[in-house]
Amino acid sequence: VVRSSLHPVFSKVFTVDYYFEEVQRLRFEVYDTHGPSGFSCQEDDFLGGMECTLGQPAQKWLLQVVMRVSVDVLHFLCCTESSHLARTGPSFLLRYDDLCLSWATAGPVRWWTCRGGHTGMIVAQKKVTRPLLLKFGRNAGKSSITVIAEDISGNNGYVELSFRARKLDDKDLFSKSDPFLELYRVNDDQGLQLVYRTEVVKNNLNPVWEAFKVSLSSLCSCEETRPLKCLVWDYDSRGKHDFIGEFSTTFEEMQKAFEEGQAQWDCVNPKYKQKRRSYKNSGVVVLADLKFHRVYSFLDYIMGGCQIHFTVAIDFTASNGDPRNSCSLHYINPYQPNEYLKALVSVGEICQDYDSDKRFSALGFGARIPPKYEVSHDFAINFNPEDDECEGIQGVVEAYQNCLPRVQLYGPTNVAPIISKVARVAAAEESTGEASQYYILLILTDGVVTDMADTREAIVRASRLPMSIIIVGVGNADFTDMQVLDGDDGVLRSPRGEPVLRDIVQFVPFRELKNASPAALAKCVLAEVPKQVVEYYSHRGLPPRGLGVPAGEASPGCTP
């Protein structure tokens, strides 16, 4: 919220995933607020809105979207030959063929807009200004909104900063100044981009502002020598803030000065400096703390030698049906793999690329097994309790097919024992203190688990370990109760109320992907794993192997 301003510059940054293959529509709305807690989206408070689309990088990008509202802006937009979509309101649509023809015959294509007119929205633009519109497409007076987008796909960390100041100029007559600080990045066109605005410290000439976090991309576009500018103001409730002073620096200079214990700058008012020979400063701003948290990607850990260990657990309960019956989910059709095999092969073939020895643990649960035919919820489907691993995915498939005629399908559907077994192996890896082994447990089941309380407890314990759990529901059962394990609708908790440290479970009903390609199935099932791997090692403060934490850097973490 920007108080008492007709020309607000919003410091809030939105990070958006960009997908080339999708048309991603965005809508920005501006509202008037009433008081400290008066935010609402009521029609009477609506100042205007604007719709646009993301656009046109040739790869999946992350975009930062920053808003600036201004009044009565004339602007033009241009696009390159590669732009694949351009549109404004419902009456304007530019076909790609027409665009290419215009480019070939007349060069860059331009649109101009006057106040109150429609603006051509070209998806390749980094900065777009459009009028704010009220209901039914009416102009909101002369108001306009500017949206700035930039690629942050190269972002590899964030910075934690804390500032304080001393002996600031007193701008108030009957009290002391109410200072706040603004940090700006200087762009290539020498324009200033607001990075962060601190809170206001009331009635204090020696303020200590709260620490804040900002991505390296937002701070300096990942260029440590890019100029930065800090401005200090005395807050005014009417929006007419009094300027106290400013200073310029770079992130590189900030790091060096902080390491040397000299991270302070004169806060200078240029007007005072020009008028008074004896003028020195309007106070001093001190960098009280600086921590650089480098953020590593999933690929960083894999290239650092982290191995993905894959374990599959197959449901052999009686609800699957007699394997000799063609209606059974376990029926082996020589011409068509069953759902268990489809899910197993699709996911396993991806995972085996990240495992150097290509050996996978294959377990079963819910069956009576030889020789005594007692019910087991944790048995090796190759019937070798000393070595439950199989050679590659084909080895798992063969072990599964050989296992079916030797067991009696029974029940109940208990999965906590298998989760606990894999967790014990992962716990041994945790003690090494290296990012070397990560475990994925794929559970294939045809129904809701019976031991839900024990399963929740096991998942909460496993959430502290280098481990992810993927549950694929096969068949047409009602899997509604399984969604609680996924954690997408709320934080999963143990029966004792303890929450998971991180979300490690992904549940996927196979019937929703039954007709999808193996690649699409694997993509959906494994979508969360890279993030979970990074979250675990970031929480533990473990960099990829061979990449220790350099001096001056904090342990790796996740971008805030």
Report on the structure:
The chain is an alpha+beta fold. It folds into three domains: 138 residues, no CATH class; 138 residues, C2 domain (Immunoglobulin-like, Sandwich), CATH 2.60.40.150; 190 residues, Rossmann fold (3-Layer(aba) Sandwich). It is 20% helix and 31% strand. It has twelve helices and 30 strands. Strands 20, 21, 24, 25, 27, 28 and 29 form a seven-stranded mixed sheet that branches. Helix 6 runs antiparallel to helix 7, helix 6 crosses helix 11 and helix 8 packs parallel to helix 9. The longest helix has 15 residues. The protein is elongated and about 95 Å long. It starts with 13 loop residues before the first strand and ends in a 6-residue tail after the last strand.
Q: What's a concise summary of this model?
A:
The protein has 560 residues and is of the alpha+beta class.
Portion in helices: 10-25%
Question: How would you sum up the global shape?
Answer: elongated
**Tally of helical segments:** 12
Give the second-level CATH assignment, the architecture of the largest domain.
Answer: 3-Layer(aba) Sandwich
Please name the CATH topology of the largest domain: Rossmann fold
Mean pLDDT: 81
Structural class by secondary-structure content: alpha+beta
Number of strands: 30
Note the beta-strand portion. 25-35%
